[in-house]
C-alpha cells in the first residue's frame, strides 16, 4: 500500500490547521481539500511515548484512546504538566481566559503567555477573551476563584462541543454575549491575587478560522480507527483536534467528525478513492434527519 506515515497530531498555525507527521513534515488543511488515508493492513496501534521520548516497550494501546499512550507513558507525560497541576515553579507568565464553545458552555483556563491564542484554537474555542496575566500560581488562584464564585468549569467535554457547532448564534455579537457577561462578573469579584494584572474584555471570534459558517450538522463521529480501514472525505470545517468531513456512505452523504487524536500511533498510508470503512458513532440528534447513514 506504499510507505506508512505516523501522524503526530493536528496543529494550528497562522495560516490555519495542519496535520503534522513524525519527521517534521506538515500537511496544510484547507476547506474543500480531500482528506484520505488508510490504516495499514494488520497494523497495531502503538504508544506514542512521553515528552518526546519513544515508549520503551512500544506498548499496544486502544483504538478509542485520544491520548494514544500506555499507562506508564501517560503517567510520565502528566508528571510535568501544567494542565495536570503538577508544576508550581514555572517562571513564565500565564494568561487566564474565558472560552465559549456554544450556548451555556463557557470555561475558564490558563495558558502560557508565550503561546498566544494557540491553546484556544487547539481546544476549539469559538469565542474567547483574556481575563488577566500574571505568575502561574496567581493564574491558578484566579481560575479557582471563578470556579468557586461563579460556577464556571475548567473543562467542557468534546462531545458537547461537537453537538452545537452547526447551531451556533448567527452573529459575532450574539456569540460574544456570554463571555462579555461573565467577564464583567469576574472582574467585579473580590479576592483576585495582587500579582495578576486584569485585562479588559476583548472578544475574539474563531467562526471564520474554523470554517463554521453554514456548517451542516454532523451525523456522527469516528469512534476509532482499525487495521485496514479507510477514511476519506472533503474537509468542510475544523475546530480544535476535529475535522468535519463530508463523506459518501452506502445510504447517502453526510458530515462526519474525525478527532485527529485517534490517528496517532497508527501506521497510515495514502489512498486514492474510498469513503469511510471505520466504526462511526451516530449522533442521536441526527437520526430523525437522516437515519442510518452507516
- Taking strands numbered 1, 2, ... along the chain, how are they ordered across the largest sheet? 14-4-11-12-13-10-15
Calculate Rg over CA atoms: 20 Å
Beta-strand percentage? 25-35%
Q: Judging from the principal axes of the Cα atoms, what is the shape?
A: globular
In DSSP terms, counting alpha (H) and pi (I) runs of 4 or more, how many helices? 7
What average pLDDT do the residues reach? 90
Helical content class: 10-25%
Q: Report the end-to-end length measured between terminal Cα atoms.
A: 25 Å
Description:
A hairpin with a 2-residue loop joins strand 1 and strand 2. The protein is globular. Strands 14-4-11-12-13-10-15 form a 7-stranded mixed β-sheet. Strands 5, 6, 7, 8 and 9 form a 5-stranded antiparallel β-sheet that branches. With 294 residues, the chain is of the alpha+beta class. The chain is built from 7 helices and 15 strands.
Attribute tags:
5-stranded antiparallel sheet; disordered C terminus; 7 helices; 294 residues
How would you briefly describe this protein structure?
This protein is of the alpha+beta class.
List the helices and strands and how they pair.
Layout: E1 7-13, E2 16-21, E3 26-28, E4 34-39, H1 71-78, E5 93-102, E6 105-112, H2 118-123, E7 127-135, H3 136-150, H4 158-164, H5 172-187, E8 197-198, E9 204-205, H6 207-210, E10 218-222, E11 230-239, E12 242-249, E13 252-259, E14 268-270, E15 280-282, H7 284-287
Parallel strand pairs: 10-13
Antiparallel strand pairs: 1-2, 2-3, 4-11, 4-14, 5-6, 5-7, 7-8, 7-9, 10-15, 11-12, 12-13
Amino acid at each position: 500500500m506504499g510507505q506508512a506515515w505516523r501522524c503526530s497530531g493536528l496543529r494550528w498555525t497562522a495560516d490555519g490547521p495542519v496535520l503534522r507527521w513524525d519527521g517534521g513534515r506538515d500537511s496544510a488543511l484547507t476547506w474543500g481539500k480531500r482528506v484520505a488515508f488508510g490504516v495499514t493492513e494488520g497494523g497495531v496501534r502503538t504508544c506514542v511515548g512521553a515528552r518526546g521520548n519513544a515508549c520503551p516497550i512500544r506498548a499496544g494501546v486502544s483504538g478509542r484512546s485520544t491520548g494514544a499512550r500506555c499507562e506508564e507513558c501517560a503517567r510520565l507525560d502528566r508528571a510535568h504538566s501544567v494542565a495536570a497541576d503538577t508544576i508550581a515553579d514555572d517562571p513564565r507568565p500565564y494568561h487566564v481566559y474565558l472560552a465559549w464553545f456554544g450556548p451555556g458552555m463557557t470555561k475558564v483556563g490558563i495558558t502560557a503567555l508565550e503561546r498566544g491564542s494557540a491553546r484556544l484554537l487547539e481546544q476549539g474555542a469559538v469565542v474567547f477573551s483574556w481575563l488577566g496575566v500574571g505568575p502561574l500560581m496567581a493564574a491558578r488562584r484566579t481560575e479557582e476563584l471563578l470556579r468557586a464564585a461563579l460556577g464556571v468549569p475548567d473543562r467542557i467535554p468534546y462531545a458537547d462541543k461537537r453537538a452545537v457547532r452547526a447551531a451556533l448564534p448567527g452573529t459575532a455579537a450574539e456569540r460574544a454575549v456570554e463571555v462579555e457577561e461573565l467577564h464583567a462578573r469576574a472582574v467585579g469579584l473580590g479576592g483576585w491575587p495582587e500579582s495578576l494584572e486584569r485585562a479588559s474584555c476583548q472578544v475574539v471570534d474563531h467562526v471564520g478560522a474554523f470554517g463554521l459558517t453554514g456548517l451542516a450538522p454532523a451525523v456522527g463521529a469516528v469512534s476509532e480507527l482499525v487495521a485496514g480501514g479507510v477514511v476519506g472525505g472533503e474537509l468542510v470545517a475544523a475546530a480544535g483536534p476535529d475535522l468535519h468531513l463530508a463523506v459518501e456512505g452506502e445510504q447517502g452523504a453526510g458530515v462526519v467528525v474525525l478527532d485527529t487524536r485517534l490517528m496517532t500511533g497508527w501506521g497510515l498510508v495514502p489512498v486514492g478513492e474510498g469513503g469511510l470503512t471505520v466504526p462511526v458513532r451516530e449522533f442521536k440528534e441526527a437520526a430523525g434527519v437522516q437515519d442510518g447513514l452507516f
